[in-house]
């Protein structure tokens, strides 16, 4: 939220939130991004959380 527009890789999110000991092949980041989308994007015409395929996730500031 403090860096809108900045791209964060799955690996970076995983290590910053769950620690470096977590398995990088886990889908825990994907699961929590999906849960966040259900809460944050609900009722908005444009989604705030964007996936950049193969790179990671980006939070866009609302227009």
From TrEMBL:
Domain named OmpR/PhoB-type: residues: 1-61
Superkingdom of the source species: Bacteria
Entry-linked Pfam families: Trans_reg_C (PF00486)
InterPro entries given in the database record: OmpR/PhoB-type_DNA-bd, Sig_transdc_resp-reg_C-effctor, WalR-like, WH-like_DNA-bd_sf
Keyword Transmembrane included in the entry's annotation: no
PROSITE patterns linked to this entry: OMPR_PHOB
GO MF terms, alphabetically ordered: DNA binding
Protein name: DNA-binding response OmpR family regulator
């Amino acid at each position: 939220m403090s860096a809108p527009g900045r791209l964060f890789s799955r690996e970076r999110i995983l290590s910053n939130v769950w620690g470096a000991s977590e398995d990088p092949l886990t889908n825990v980041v994907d699961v929590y991004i999906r849960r966040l989308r259900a809460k944050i994007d609900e009722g908005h015409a444009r989604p705030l959380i964007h996936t950049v395929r193969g790179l990671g996730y980006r939070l866009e500031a609302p227009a």
